[in-house]
# Entry
Amino acid sequence: MRFRCNCRSHGGLRGGSLDGPLDGRRRGSAPLAGRRALLRAGLLATLGGLAGCEASRKGAGAVAPQEIGPGTSCELDGMLLAEYPGPKGQLLYADASAPVFFCDTVELLDTLLRPEQVRAVAAAWVQDMGRADWEQPRGHWIDARSAFYVRGSRRHGSMGPTFASFAREEDARRFAAEHGGTVLGFAEIRPAMVDLSGGADVDQRM
# Structure
């Protein structure tokens, strides 16, 4: 039985028989298998990367802050956020599908910084008071951990003295120059500064 092969690897078998030399086929099959393996690995890596990007996009959307509505209430005391002035906060726990709200940044910071806080936090937000209206703040949510705060100003929030929150340090310093207080980064805030366990005493410390 005779055959005709047109591939480059089998060029030496043209016009030959099946029982002819096999060296050409063996030399050609190994590189071909290697190329197929490389193509398969590249395809899998590409599909894996696309899946990871899609998961990241879904994850990013899942942790977006929500807006305050007429019925939005404080996690700690049930106060309606829309009825009080000053910066508010919201926190999304890692095991929750929706954030909880706080009617004052002091409550949010106390929750984040208390030593016994062990529940994993996916995200925490406060409002940028360099852009939001103090009397009726809506929107302008920023990452609580990257914000700048003014402690001890003459402007009060829903709980009295508050930590005014800002996205930009220059806005925080401008606010402090006008209304008093000390500018702090998140890392500079100590649990004792926002401890709510002392009741009314916390207002005097602030």
